[in-house]
Design brief:
single chain, 4 strands, 58% strand, mainly beta
């Protein structure tokens, strides 16, 4: 809200409850650099897409490929706070 006389503004925030169940379509693409179990250095390209949200839990699919040729593809559940 803006006071038309003083120009002062006020922001009102309301915390909405997280939904019990909802569909979502949030995606992320990452490029990471690190080491693996054998201390070999690798570059990793990964992508994930969240598909379903239940309160603070988000479920989706993800895949990654490393510069050494190994890869991963699967699904998972994460907690976002």
């Amino acid at each position: 809200m803006i006071d038309s006389k003083t120009g002062e503004s006020t922001t009102v925030e309301q915390a909405l409850p997280k939904p019990w169940l909802s569909a979502e379509s949030k995606s992320e693409i990452r490029l990471d650099y690190g080491i693996k179990n054998d201390l070999a250095r690798v570059l990793r390209l990964s992508a994930r897409m969240d598909l379903i949200q239940v309160k603070s839990l988000h479920a989706g699919v993800n895949a990654s490929v490393d510069s050494d040729g190994t890869f991963f593809a699967g699904g998972g559940i994460g907690y976002k706070f």
